Amino acid sequence: MDSLTLLCTASLLAGGLYWFLCILGSAEQKGKRAAQLSGGSIAKEKVRDTYKQYWSFFRRPKEIETADKVPAFVDTFYNLVTDIYEWGWGQSFHFSPSIPGKSHREATRLHEVMAVDLLDLKPGARILDAGCGVGGPMRAIAAHSGANVVGITINEYQVNRARMHNKKAGLDKQCEVVCGNFLQMPFASDSFDGAYSIEATCHAPKLEEVYSEIYRVLKPGSLYVSYEWVTTELYRGDNPEHVEVIQGIERGDALPGLRSYKDISEVAKKVGFEILNEKDLAKPPSNPWWTRLKMGRIAYWRNHILVTVLAWLGIAPKGVVDVHEMLFVTADYLTRGGETGIFTPMHMILCRKPDCKSSDSSSF
Question: What is the pTM of this model?
Fold first, then answer.
């Protein structure tokens, strides 16, 4: 009887542990399992050292303000976090307003397709995704619009992940992914019918440089929409708490420096765009975008236990535990930024590259 009780108890504990760590282990598993967590293109034994190298960027702040340093900085970051993002968040590395009655996945998709709807393009149009990650938005937009989407990302590991996901979704003929720097894109001038960037250009050291490149590759008369990470009108640079929150977001998301909402349209106009619309999509009546972060705290602790166990067993790189903890701390800063209203990840700007014909006719 004692042996039977012991066996049953052990079975229940083992089953409970499996359920806790594996079934509930990820907040939203989307194509990546915990046992597959890696450091992207970084060798397993070098993940922890690379994580330390990432933090060294912040000990030399002047270096991350220059264009030649930032690409390597951002590439390192995405090697470290891509697998964790996919495992715990999904294939779309961005936020969206929560929608009553809709799942996080549905709310994310609606936020993405709104971008292409603003571009008002026909099926078969060629669209640029500037900073495409592993291609979650790209696939939603291609499926919704019938457009052909070309994405560019600095990270080679993300390119391979995106191509795999595209093929699995049956969208590899509609979705193309290129490894490159969106500050110097390998595309011909006037070659795209439209363009979008979703929470991506915040990684550029100077917004003018990436906006200039997007302007160059767009056909005259074409539209560009971007969701930008910015500080809002409520941010005060002389408020220590505000500064702490914004710096925490910058450190945990590989940002060379968050911009003010006032800078976005000024830069767009400077490179030649006409501004058609500008709006903070996080403002009421939109529901809080940070709700998902707060709801995911229990899932974080489940995931952190699992990551720690996998690292201890040698299945996951040891540095993954450090990266996972960094992202949890960053999530708290993001939540505080949202709750105080000093930060938004969805300052939307819709621009148009002037049509040569209309510019010529207006000069007479």
Answer: 0.89
